[in-house]
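Practice set, problem 2.
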Amino acid sequence: MDRYQAMTTFVRVVETGSFSAAARQLGVGQPAVSKTVAQLEARLQVSLLIRTTHGLTPTEAGQNFYERARNAIQEADEAELAAKGAGIGLSGRLRVSAATTFSRLHVIPKLPEFLAAHPQLDVDFLLDDRMIDLVAEGVDISLRMGALSDSTAVARKIATGRRSVIATPAYLARAGIPWHPADLANHDTVIYSQLPSVWSFTRDGAAVSVSVSGRLRVSAAEGLRAAILADMGLTITSDWMFAPELERGAVVRVLEGWSLSPIDLWAVFPAGRMMTAKARQFAGFVEDLMNSVA
């Protein structure tokens, strides 16, 4: 039995959840996939898969084998890519985790360029505003903004963006324009629950911190955008999150004489695993995108 092929087959079975789907992706018959997994279990003398109502699920031993086999395949692919040279396009599957709104506005619309450069590459995008377990989810690279909560994370800063207090012209016409951070106490504030409710401003070396509150608190950036565009108040946000609206004047900045700390965009990689060429090149692609936006 070809060990590399057996590992590749098993990894594909786990990721697709069935023998038939794995067979379609591998371009072989289902009996060949079933036989390969059975031979693998016989050689290892352990059960790797169990059948459930949702398909095939790895056992504890199967999950451990899957994670190590997937890493081994990636490292083998890295070695092959290095031997062939940088002119060869990427291949296989790239799993990306990123915040929903940021991806929708800035990354996914440009993704055809990346895919065109690498016609043998497939991309899985996991869209979630929360930080997920990269290893458990099989993620190659995660795009995250702000401070990183995990000090052990392998990360590279790829962009820095401006943060602003923004609102719609309609809301400001109704509620007035704040000229000093203290004026925010008299305004409706839409709170993004993943950020602190104390906003810190600086001007001419002086610092002012304001504790804000509001009747609406949202847990996702899409909800924040919807609330602001519905004239429900003002908020503090990265300019990235409202780039189209800022450009056409649908929202405007206030308190522009005051500075807010910038926000960083990070490429985060799974701890304990070698960074793949796919992840490294995708990070460079996004870095170039955001530099062009800036």
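Problem 2, part (b): a different protein.
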Amino acid sequence: MGDKRRPAAKGKTPATIYDIARITGVNPSTVSRALNQPGRVSASTEQRIREAAADLGYRTNPMARALPTGKTGTLGLLVSDLTNPVYFDLVRGAERIAREHDTMLIFADSQESPELERSTAERLQIAVDGLLLVASRLEDAQIQELAAAKPIVAVNRPVPGVPSVAPDVQPGMVESLDLLHGLGHRRIAYLAGPEASWMNGMKWVTAHDLAVDRGMSIVEIQSSAPTREGGTEAFADVMAADVTAVLAYNDLIALGLIGACQQHGVAVPRDLSLIGFDDIFGADLSAPALSTVRCSWGDMGSRAVSKLLGAIEGDASGAELNLPTEFVSRASVAAPGR
């Protein structure tokens, strides 16, 4: 026999909770509780209702779901650049926890634009129960204003008074600077990311302080974008700085710089050592394989969704969560050869 649990035929009027109630012999309000608030009715009744819903091809309408509960069962996830592979693991981790809680994620991209991020966040807040702001380019006050309207968790940066999940860059960068110093590097550069990025500022301050503490000189070089192209375009400035090692804002910039070095006959790591940040997919596939500072983006995604779901339910505990980083040694670092 065929499986009766199939979606309604194309063109057929979608099933409603009233259809389910008629088949199961319970009130529509009982159907609503069984489908939207598990545990509010007996296990046998809930199972019977869910089986009937499956047979009818019933699909929950988030807007209708919001009427009795005040919640849509959806969360927004707004990232600074959806094309950045660093977010792959974050999205997967966030989706896993959302799915476990029968919650849907809506994704949006601000394209590194604070103005677009603000307008997109405001539009999302109308339709979701809470919002994840990933690598936000907004000012603290703007994020706090958004958080006053609906629960928000900031990812990859802390914001006073707003729950957040971010990497602790200190451990990984300490390992990086210790290695460079031990190999004999004394003149290094930090190849920066977006000026509006809080994390970019944190990485620069951390790298600067650690270098000075070790008697190393360090300069900041601005990239045009946090992409491979940004790293490629920074090649001339890096060469003009006369440094023996570069710490990059992220792996994409570092990989772009590796490519430019190859094009111009600069040997990595003999002539220039490079360290990235994030340990994205493919960082170990470059030639040479990229040494980097790893942070668990998948863990950040799952922790952020858990924190947001808690905030939606009124749990304000543990406002700021910092996850450790670690240095990953590969083939792009060696003793200076010049």
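Answer key, part (b): Residues 1-10 have pLDDT under 50 and may be disordered. The first helix runs from residue 17 to 24.
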